[in-house]
Amino acid sequence: MKFENIEKIADPEVVAIVERALSNKDLYLDEVERLLKCRGIDLYLICLAADYLRKETIGDIVTYVVNRNINFTNVCIMNCGFCAFSRDFRSEETYFLPIEEVVRRAKEAYHLGATEVCIQGGLPPKLDWEFYPKLIREIKKEVPNIHIHALSPVEIWYGAHLSKLGYDEFLKILKEAGLDTIPGTAAEILDDEIRKLISPGRISTNEWVTIIKTAHKLGIPSTSTIMYGHVENEIHRAKHLLILREIQKETKGFTEFVPLSFVYEEAPMYKYKLVNNIKAGPTGEEIIALYATSRLVLNNYIKNLQVSWVKEGPKLAQFLLSCGANDFGGTLINESISSTAGAKFGQYMSPKEIRRLIFDAKRIPAQRTTTYSIIRVFKDINEVSDIPLEKIEWSEEKFGSYFRLIKDERFRFRKRV
Fold first, then answer.
1. Residue 211: which H helix or E strand, with range?
2. How confident is the model at residue 365 (pLDDT cuts 50, 70, 90)?
3. pLDDT value of position 34
4. Contact 251, 220 (CB under 8 A)
5. How far apart are the C-alpha atoms of 291 and 323, rounded to whole Å?
6. 177 near 133, Cβ under 8 Å?
7. Confidence bin at 416 (pLDDT 50/70/90)
8. Contact at 8 Å (CB) between 145 and 110?
9. Residue 251 to residues 20, 25, 116, 284, 289: CA-CA distances in angstroms?
10. Which of 279, 193, 201 is nearest to 240 (CA)?
11. The domain at 61-411 falls in which architecture?
12. In terms of Cα–Cα distance, which of 289, 319, 291, 286 is closest to 305?
């Protein structure tokens, strides 16, 4: 793809970087940083290039997964500055779902047509490490065909620490129990200076990378993420993207890349000004630049770029489909972490609404599995799925929410573990 005479209106440096990316060349750190700083006509240019690469690599299909989030506890020993979800064990707003309740929710999701449950939680004190494999085992026993996408690298770190096992040994136990894939969350920004500011005491960059690589080498794929728009800048984002690229070159274990905007309203480090120069999340241009740049940097290695409708809202998420993205994420049914931080679009989006947004973007929706096998392609906006979830009106009373859980005496933490 050539941009004839584009140098007359765009920065020639940006044009040269874009042409290198379109020639399937790996971009250097300074080039990635430059793309992330693009604004105006340069931003339009990299979006056009990212959209072109997406079409050449993936085509016009936009995928989504029917899934349910189950955050089994909000009790956590960490005090991450960006997290409004977690509570100290002494708080009156704690909850811990017993295994039978998690299994019930997984079974309900499966009967509604979900193919995946995504399970994550806080790090409660004095947890019996065997809770993790037992939870997975019990779900698989009751719902053998559901895909279990569970336990972030920081939870794997915690389980390995509690069990006094190595990461490989602990992950093998989880895999034998039925763990299918893991979320690549807890990445935030893969730079230890930034991590010390926003999440002191949390796992280091090296620990995150080691856990992810170990999982991949054991045949456990993962997603990859970035959480940006707080105290980092473009060079940190650029380094983060290149770390992910190098991991994928080695392991080929990432299924997708998911940029996650910092939701600031209720985040402690913003609300109480715990960190100097904290930003109120990324600007719209920063979001667009990150998506377009991610496609140009990762296209040869991580082909799937997911929009977060929870973080960005449906309309911006829809627009990002023209900036290199090809996946619309999941239905979620229950979303807690972003909602507690102040996100306005959490909880649930129906498969029908996801398909409408994709059709309106002049693309073709398709339901997928967690690992991107296509279940069904929808050719017409009037086409409907036969899964029960399509016919059910979501309500907080029926499916619950974080704000109901923290008031539900049945699930109060009370040193349950």
1. helix 205-217
2. very high
3. 98
4. no
5. 6
6. yes
7. low
8. yes
9. 24, 20, 23, 33, 27
10. 193
11. Alpha-Beta Barrel (3.20)
12. 291
pLDDT tens digits, one per residue of 5-23: 676 789 999 999 999 999 9
Tokens 């290039």 found at: 49
The candidate with the shortest Cα–Cα distance to 329, out of 225, 239, 402, is: 225
Q: What is the pLDDT of residues 182-192, one digit of tens each?
A: 999 999 999 99
Q: Which 3 state secondary structure label does DSSP give 70?
A: strand
Q: What is the dihedral of CA 103, 343, 338, 140, to 10 degrees?
A: 20
Q: In terms of Cα–Cα distance, which of 187, 170, 211, 181 is closest to 118? A: 181
CA–CA distances in Å: residue 354 to residues 247, 324, 327, 381: 31, 18, 10, 11
Q: Domain map of the chain by residue range?
A: 6-51, 61-411
Query: Rounded to whole angstroms, how far apart are CA atoms 136 and 175?
Result: 9
**Tokens 């799937």 appear where?**
304
Q: How far apart are CA 167 and CA 208, in angstroms?
A: 11
